[in-house]
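Render this sequence as a predicted structure.
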Amino acid sequence: MAARYETVIGLEVHVHLLTRSKMFCGCATTFGAPPNSQTCPVCQGMPGVLPVINRRAIELGIRTALALHLRINPECRFARKHYFYPDMPKNYQISQYEAPLASDGGLEVEVDGATRRIGIERLHLEEDVGKLTHEGGVFETATRSLVDFNRAGVPLMEIVSRPDLRSPAEAAEYLKTLRALLRWLAVSDGNMEEGSLRCDANVSLRPIGAAGYGTKVEIKNMNSFRHVRAALEYEVTRQSRALDQGERLVQETRLWNPEAGHTRS
């Protein structure tokens, strides 16, 4: 039976930059250091402290942007993104939104012998958040949660693709190609198991031949190429079945559960 729906996927890739110090302070970025041993009043958000931007992070961002044929914007601007969560001690994240570092580029990806150009909407810089460890299971069943602020403030580069990807296989190949480029540029080590490269996906379906987009669902918690492909394949199947049964999809964020092999709200 011919497919009734076209898959539309966009990826948001978060990349740890290879800098010796954090984005806005002088703390080290060494992976695996003892918990909370690489923090200071700046990355802890203490009153009266001021951030100083990491020049090396800007240089690595520009290097990546040029390799992806992005337009370097004459002005980029940082802003505070306010939210309240235990992994961000300041209760805000310094990021870029209205004026990113670079925009409007692309990356060529080869799948099944054919090469396609995947558009890249923007590249911006921000600081990472801390790391939560839930003892005894996931958050809902944990006996207690531990927080490590070593990662808070580590330079993070976010590369946002356009919704040009048309299959889970193509999305996984895009991610592999992008990681290979980042490693070749010596911008990031790209170790997904250490969190140096993380990926969120926006997935929707639309009838074959339709011009508009369907209801978008964001998928998080994918920490390997295999999990990215498996999560997207599951989500495409879930949405397709729901549409066939006349259900109305809702825009939401879902987490991939690799043990159970499904996404959940």
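Summary. The radius of gyration is 19 Å. The chain has one domain: 5-264.
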